[in-house]
Amino acid sequence: MVLERILIVDDDPNMRELFEVALGLDASLKLVICASGLEAVEAAQEFHPQLLVLDVNMPRMDGPQTLAELRTRGESSPAVFATAETGPETLDRLKSLGVEDIVIKPFDPLDLAATLKRIWQQANPDQPLQDGKNR
Predict the structure, then answer these.
(1) In the chain, count of helices (H) and strands (E)?
(2) Most C-beta atoms within 10 A of its C-beta, which of 44, 52, 57, 63?
């Protein structure tokens, strides 16, 4: 199995568009992009994502709260936080919440798909690489 389904949640419409454009360059990826944590929790039940990409700072239900709610509902996909916060204490706190990695905003749109595939592969070392070969 290779990475095909990514659920993204970000309250900023410009960031949602950037995610869509950046990841849309890779035809192998299917995306569900949500504007809120609540929307993401609902979408995950039908979409069955393989990777979660969660904005950290959102109103009502932030990224950590969204991840916690997804986990209580049985969603076990690897997760990545996306944030512009780069302080070491903040990054350590976010990593302690059980995410695979953190993507720092602004990110390079041309590298985003490869970055997320690498993170997913590290979380799923027994899965074949994108080219179908095992490590």
Answers:
(1) 5, 5
(2) 63
Query: Which DSSP category does 101 fall into?
Result: E
For residues 49 and 21, the answer to whether their CB atoms sit within 8 Å is no
In the chain, the number of structural domains is 1
pLDDT for position 60:
95
Cβ(15)–Cβ(41) under 8 Å? no
What's the CA gap between 56 and 67, in Å, rounded?
A: 10
Domain-embedded: residue 14: yes
- pLDDT mean by block of 10 residues, the chain; 135 residues: 95 98 95 98 97 97 98 97 95 95 95 97 81 45
In a domain, 128, yes or no: no
Give the Cα separation of 85 and 56 in Å (integer): 9
pTM of the shown model: 0.93
